[in-house]
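Dig into what follows:
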Amino acid sequence: MKYLWRALGYLRGYWLLTAGALVGLLISNATRLVIPRLTQAAIDNGIAVQRVDVVVWAALGMVGLASAGSVFSFLQGVWAARIAQGIAYDLRNQIYAKVQSLSFSYHDRAQTGQLLTRATSDVDVVRMFVGQGFIQLLNALFMMVGSILLLFVTDWQLALVILVLVPVTFGLFAFFANKARALFMQIQQRLADLNTVLQENLVGVRVVKAFAREPYEAQRYARSNQNLFDLNIVVGRLFAIAIPLIFLLANLALLAVYWIGGYQVIGDHLSMGRLVAFANYMMMAFFPMLILGMIITMVSQAGASTERVFEILDAQSEVVEAPSALNLPTVSGQVAFDYVSFRYFGAGELVLRDVSFVAEPGQTVALLGATGSGKSTIINLIPRFYDVTQGRVTVDGHDVRDVTLESLRRQIGIVLQQTTLFSGTIRENIAFGRPDASEEAIIRVAQAAEAHDFITDFPAGYDTLVGERGVTLSGGQKQRIAIARALLLDPRILILDDATSSVDYETERRIQVALGRLMAHRTSFVIAQRIATVLNADQILVLERGEIVARGSHEELMEQSPIYAEIYSSQLQGEPVPDGRGADVRPCPVSQGEGVR
């Protein structure tokens, strides 16, 4: 329940509308509670004594009260809907902002389908609760309390008989509420699981088709769908039992009223009008109980959904900007790792161990090593996507934990191994980091990334729509656009995570020539699977199991590192490689441990 109360706390931001909705609710219910008294007057003081004028005035009063009640009920409904939509709007924005602020380690653990379900389905459940469920709950409670009070005013003896059934009814509510809440928590989780399977298949549809796995994936989706279906059936059965039970109690109570009250009317101890009014108030008291029985579904579901929503909003980022963080001034580009060790969240072993090196301004540092050696982890620590476990990372002598994230990341251009483009035009994707960039600047970086020619080959040129995740472009085209996007920032530090992995040899050679010019005055970190792309690096760091096992220039490593010489020999024996000036060099045979002759 604490999460429901917390969700209701958002009403404070809409206090004026909330006050209006509550006033409308009170007035509309008050008019309904007066009508049985007019009915009593029409019967006892009009029909019983044959006074038509009393009947007419009572009828006019009922019409007037019903009309007024309808107007205020309409206003209350409009204002409640506005409040609900406003709170849903706020929650969606907060969830999005929170997800964007969370560190990489959170996203490493989170499933996209789970996040989507919480930001959409769960928020909609909260909206329904605030806009309808909570108002209906207040409405039911007000009507129930008011009706019970008027039952005692009308005939306290009959009221005592009816009151016996109230604790029984509330006992049923409590029982079914506890059962329902646990079930709805499971339903939302299974819905998230279903969305996860769907999202994975939509993203990986080409892989599914390529491996002819459509039947298997269809079965996997069907299993998740069946799990959700089965649990919803259980909930349906639960409420199929609860609602008829409450109706049964209401009918038993009405039967008791007419049985006992009928004897009193016959014995002239109770007027007919009073009996009719009492019966009306009794139904007014029990009808809210029926409403509560239905609202219990919404409340239980909302309780589960609010908990899931606030789990995201309460999530803590492992990378937190210090309150005293400074804006990093324009840097020259020195990057230093000082005995850095690192492990991922929840992992037992370190993936980096005592890594130390200094990249001077303008230098190119290449990272080589097998998969899992720690190359990507090193470049992820520079823009502080993760915090080091031990040691420190500095940029121009500033510990990255002591500066604001925006001022740090604005000076770093990154091209990740898995290229991500957004729906929109090629121009918008290149200008993603600088939306105000001029046309000339966009074209210049596209030319530098060897992307301009293929872009202008499209009929719409730079206004070509790339589709979701750049689906209309080839892997090499997407990668060159990503390189242009990074270069447009004019960063002092450039990170290329295997940035030429999806291009052919000729395109790679042209990109290497362009990047050679562009990286001349920038500190650059290059991860490459092909050693040919890093031969001209100022420093080459060879990593193995999270440790630097060799470092130096190409020539130094050929003389000093058997591991590097073996990599060189296995990859480039007799293969032409770009020398960074546009020419090809055919490396001479080198045995392990020999230098270049």
In short: The first strand starts at residue 335 and ends at 342. The CA atoms of residues 208 and 216 lie 9 Å apart.
